[in-house]
């Protein structure tokens, strides 16, 4: 008789964003015609840049002719995209990497979940709390021990290295999802030094690095000396260039990265990808490469500026309502403290019923997210302005609450 993986019983039955969607759908059915502004799920709203779309069309047309047709490509990605990444994302910042250390994929989420294939199930994994659910759930599915590192408002959500239990694997995401906060060079160096000292592996989710505004915030963990010996970096074109539907990202696995028992993780990840993955779509990789052209860079910069203006509008509206706000400076996420005495879901319901605005309950990101909600800046300017207006009015109608 076959058996199921009973580790699935250790994770929540409902994925956070699915639970939010069901609650919103129920509200809309009970209130037909109501204008609901969705600032919960972090999906982008601006279209893919013209430079990328033009290349999509061109690459798609190539598939219609025998002379230019492209079938299976290298599992780790086409050289034209890898070279663009090396030149623009790393060499331009003084970081030396080789082409065989870059692995193109269908998005950071996939790689963050799949990276566990090359890691022992005996590893103890540390995740910050609050945290992106994929880190926690995929490790619980694999049967690993997971410990949490509280990130609290009292410390500006900066995690403190664990001392009681030394983790084998550490997940860090900066700029952070969900809190929208960032780490300076000195704060990130603490983690690199810690990982090197204890032979731990850092899995560094850098999906939002393009939103960084401050010069003292590193765009890559490899800007920290010694990070190549202890860190894998994950990046995505989803939030940077609107590829949430096209699906493309990449993972950096330095050759210096060797496990405590002597395995080269670069070789292992390459073998894993060649076995389980046929590579990201050729036409999508062509579109991603176009983002590194002068036109593509300008269009991406304009889109990011648009979303960061939205973030500033949300911050102002929330502050005018008397709410305490974090993030939204180096990140498109705004992290908001619920009014005194309210938990995350109660504040979610208040925003939905009084303001017709959808946020994400912070408790869905972990116990330390309780009594917070997350807003995203990924909406239209008109909707964001209207959401800020509704939020400002919230305090006038609920003086006893806020």
Describe this entry's structure for a reader.
The protein has about 400 residues and is an alpha/beta fold. It has two domains: about 5-50 and about 295-395, Alpha-Beta Complex (Aspartate Aminotransferase, domain 1); about 50-295, Aspartate Aminotransferase, domain 2. It has twelve helices and 13 strands. A seven-stranded mixed β-sheet has the order 2-8-7-6-5-3-4, with helices on both faces. Strands 9-10-13-12 form a four-stranded antiparallel β-sheet. The chain has a two-stranded parallel sheet with strand order 1-11. The protein is globular and about 55 Å long. The N and C termini lie far apart (about 55 Å).
Q: Count of DSSP E strands?
A: 13
Structural class: alpha/beta
- Mean of residue pLDDT? 94
Can you tell me the CATH topology of the largest domain? Aspartate Aminotransferase, domain 2
The top-level CATH class of the largest domain is Alpha Beta
* Helix count from the secondary structure assignment: 12
Name the CATH homologous superfamily of the largest domain.
Type I PLP-dependent aspartate aminotransferase-like (Major domain)
What is the approximate shape? globular
Which CATH architecture of the largest domain is right? 3-Layer(aba) Sandwich
Give the helix level as a range of percent. Answer: 25-40%
Main attributes of the structure:
disordered C terminus; 12 helices; alpha/beta; Aspartate Aminotransferase, domain 2; globular; 38% helix; 2 domains; 402 residues; 13 strands; 7-stranded mixed beta sheet
């Amino acid at each position: 008789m076959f058996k199921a993986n009973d580790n699935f019983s250790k994770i929540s039955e409902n994925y956070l964003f699915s639970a939010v969607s069901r609650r919103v759908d129920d509200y809309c059915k009970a209130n037909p015609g109501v204008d609901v502004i969705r600032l919960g799920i972090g999906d982008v709203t601006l279209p893919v840049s013209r430079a990328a779309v033009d290349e999509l069309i061109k690459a798609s047309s190539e598939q219609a002719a025998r002379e230019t047709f492209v079938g299976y490509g290298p599992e780790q990605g086409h050289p034209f995209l890898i070279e663009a990444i090396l030149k623009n994302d790393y060499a331009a910042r003084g970081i030396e990497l080789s082409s065989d250390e870059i692995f193109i994929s269908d998005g950071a989420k996939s790689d963050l979940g799949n990276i566990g294939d090359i890691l022992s199930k005996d590893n103890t994994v540390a995740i910050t709390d609050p945290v992106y659910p994929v880190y926690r759930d995929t490790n619980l599915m694999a049967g690993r021990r997971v410990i949490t590192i509280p990130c609290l408002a009292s410390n500006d959500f900066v995690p403190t290295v664990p001392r009681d239990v030394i983790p084998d694997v550490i997940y860090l995401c900066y700029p952070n999802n969900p809190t929208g906060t960032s780490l300076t060079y000195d704060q990130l160096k603490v983690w690199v030094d810690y990982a090197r000292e204890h032979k731990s592996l850092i899995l560094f989710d850098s999906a939002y690095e393009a939103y960084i505004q401050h010069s003292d915030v590193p765009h890559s963990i490899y800007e920290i000396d010694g990070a190549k010996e202890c860190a894998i970096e994950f990046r995505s074109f989803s939030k940077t260039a609107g590829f949430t539907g096209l699906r493309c990202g990449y993972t950096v696995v330095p050759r210096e990265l060797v496990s405590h028992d002597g395995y080269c993780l670069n070789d292992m990840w390459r073998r894993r990808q060649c076995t389980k993955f046929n590579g990201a779509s050729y036409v999508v990789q062509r579109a991603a490469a176009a983002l590194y052209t002068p036109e593509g860079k300008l269009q991406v910069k304009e889109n990011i500026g648009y979303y960061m203006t939205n973030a500033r509008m949300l911050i102002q509206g929330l502050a005018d309502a008397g709410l305490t706000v974090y993030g939204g400076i180096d990140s498109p996420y705004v992290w908001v403290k619920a009014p005194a005495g309210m938990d995350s879901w109660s504040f979610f319901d208040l925003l939905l019923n009084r303001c017709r605005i959808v946020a994400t309950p912070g408790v869905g990101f972990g116990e330390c997210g309780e009594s917070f909600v997350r807003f995203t800046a990924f909406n239209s300017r008109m909707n964001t302005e209207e959401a800020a207006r509704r939020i400002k009015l919230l305090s006038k109608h609920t003086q006893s609450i806020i």
